[in-house]
Design goal:
By secondary structure, the protein is of the alpha/beta class. About 30% of the residues lie in helices and about 20% in strands.
Length: about 160
């Protein structure tokens, strides 16, 4: 059975304050772009589950995306997504429940780019608000190289 992993890089964050990295909010551009990503997801996918980094900017990105969805998926905030590299994210993917066919993973770079490379074997830049849709054959536990990048894109700046 095909599984679909939707990698979502958080929207543009605001660097003007002196917050800790995890507490950095979205910028005005980020708050404009995230709903556009959500509208695309709503028109093209049905999410069963969203796994979201606890960082303020990732949570805010998810809330703006989720507001565009007519059917809300289950949401899990996962501490492991914050500051994880590809292998840490791969471990999270491999532990996803097989009852979830389409899962969104809302996180950060360089981890998301590294995970995408591990899954597909190709490099793809994931700028802020980028959505990458990856198809995997088999169970989540079997996730690894050989996945197919279905599409990748982001709202205009």
């Amino acid at each position: 059975m095909t599984k679909t992993l939707v990698l979502i890089r958080h929207a543009k964050s605001d660097w003007s304050g002196d917050e800790e990295d995890i507490d950095r909010p979205l910028s005005k551009r980020g708050t404009r772009q995230a709903p556009e990503s959500g509208a695309w997801i709503a028109a093209n996918l049905h999410l069963d589950l969203a796994v979201v980094s606890p960082a303020k900017r990732a949570l805010a990105t998810w809330k703006l995306i989720e507001a565009e969805l007519s059917v809300k998926p289950e949401v899990r905030i996962d501490e492991g997504v914050y500051a994880a590299w590809g292998q840490g994210l791969m471990d999270i993917v491999r532990e996803l429940p097989d009852s979830a066919t389409t899962v969104a993973l809302v996180g950060h770079n360089p981890g998301l780019e590294d995970l995408l490379h591990q899954l597909t074997g190709g490099w793809q830049a994931l700028k802020t608000s980028t959505v990458a849709v990856v198809d995997l054959e088999g169970s989540w536990a079997e996730a690894g190289h050989g996945a197919t990048l279905r599409t990748v894109g982001r709202p205009p700046c």
